[in-house]
Amino acid sequence: MLFSTRRRATVGVLVSLALLATAGCSDADATNQPQPPKTGGTLHVIVSAKPAHLDPQRIATATDANVSRLLSRTLTTFKSEPGAAASEIVGDLATDAGRPSEGNRVWDFRLKEGLRWEDGTPITCEDVKYGVERSFSSAFSVAQPYAKTYLASTENYAGPFVDGNNDGKGLASVQCADKRNIKFRLSQPVGDFGYTVAMSVFAPVPVKQDTKNDYDRKPFSNGPYKLQENTDQRLVFVRNQYWDRKTDSVRKAYPEKIVIEANGDLPTVTSNLIQSEGDFADSIDLDKNVAPSFVQQVVNDPDLSARAVQGSYGGIRYLAINSKRIPDLDCRRALVYAFDKRKFRAAAGGSVFGDYANTMIAPQLKAHKDFDLYDSANNVEGKPDVAVKLMEGRRNSGKPCATTLTLSIPEQKDIRRLAATMVESYQRIGIQLKVNGIDPESYFDVIGNPANQNDLLWAGWIPDWANGSAVIPPLFDGRLIPTKADATNNQNYSLLNDRQINDAIAAALEESMPDRQYRLWGELDEKIQQQAVTIPIIYMKALRMAGTNVRGGFIHPQFGQPDLCALGLA
């Protein structure tokens, strides 16, 4: 599951976002117990791998983003409420969601009074400006390109660590009128820039506390918690005494302490949470669904089902096909036809974890277009006969498809089991699939290097708001593929760089009429599927197990996970 780069929905879409996306969350999953959480205690959070990044400018995955809100506040943020409200933004450090002018090319924000860092010093406009400036640095890999994409006068700016930070002037398009007022000047109209500054890459950083690469291990907090311990498998967060609840309408901050521990043994984790003995009564699995062997027990037991946190959220599990390593269209089409989605979903635990997918834009989004180019809905076990014919055609032409391919996955037992179904799918058409297991903590950094040597890549995507602009550009705009040799922030895993697709993306982003823009994204989705650079597998659902003492759980659509800001203990 990825937390990914957010893209703007363009002018006019902002006002209707709240009406567009409930993200599949229903009132039923608003809380996993009738009693609300109480203040105090230690919440234990289990993750499959320790968050890769805590530095807000480096955050790219869902888990990292969810955890980040404990430490790092942004000018705006998403509400911590179940249902449609979770797709709405509110002022976080800022008093409101921003004030546009000059045709949405200028955005002003005013910081709230009483905001402080973990040492008690005030949060200022200069801290926000400096955080944005850090995202232009080459000293470390920055996850999200939006400051570079949207801000004006960035062509020759190289960040704060070189040339005396533009001779002390910093980034000219971010201006501080005083300690509390900040102005962003954009290179193009952006009607929902208030959503853009909710991203971690826009979080403030105090210049005196910036340790560059080392900041990733110990970021300075302005949220309700600060980092007490950071080891290979464990993070411990304790109260930040200078966080003021009166300045923060989003974070509930019920627990006194939050302990996050990595454990990739999913069956054991699920079993321990079901039994809920000791600390497991106060624990929740944040990023992994109930182990397949326990699904029926959980869904059929009223008590277990009541404390499972569940819901759909518009995310998609898919396989990316590296178009640079597999440049022939028919060879890629053969891979799409051969994929057995039924076997994959059965190994994942069945329909409770997702509906079969044949598009990259999920049905929850108004930009979704209903099409099925490969007749997948009627053939969920694939069409291996069609795949074989395509491969035979390539052999007859003297340009045969490769019969040995590499699949990259995070090295975890449950994902290994799912990868085994892919191995079987491709054996049917004479392709040997070698599974390349990568350390889960560094997985997305590894596949985020465009030079990686994998043919197929395990991936997932969660749109950050309900529009195709949160799906198509970050995944398929070839202009966003980094050229730096050691880059780790690419999210166009298929390496699609098609001029017509790129131009169509630009045109869709410029469209100000929502209904027209939805249509353009749906048409783009179909054109991209014609290129066979991804295999959509399932539209994801979540079923996360919680201990008997955990309260307040719901699946937040921005993360596809229980929202850490809302969790507490009875």
TrEMBL record:
<dbReference type="Pfam" id="PF00496">
    <property type="entry name" value="SBP_bac_5"/>
</dbReference>
<feature type="domain" description="Solute-binding protein family 5">
    <location>
        <begin position="88"/>
        <end position="477"/>
    </location>
</feature>
<dbReference type="InterPro" id="IPR030678">
    <property type="entry name" value="Peptide/Ni-bd"/>
</dbReference>
<dbReference type="InterPro" id="IPR039424">
    <property type="entry name" value="SBP_5"/>
</dbReference>
<dbReference type="InterPro" id="IPR000914">
    <property type="entry name" value="SBP_5_dom"/>
</dbReference>
<feature type="signal peptide">
    <location>
        <begin position="1"/>
        <end position="28"/>
    </location>
</feature>
<protein>
    <submittedName>
        <fullName>ABC transporter substrate-binding protein</fullName>
    </submittedName>
</protein>
<keyword id="KW-0732">Signal</keyword>
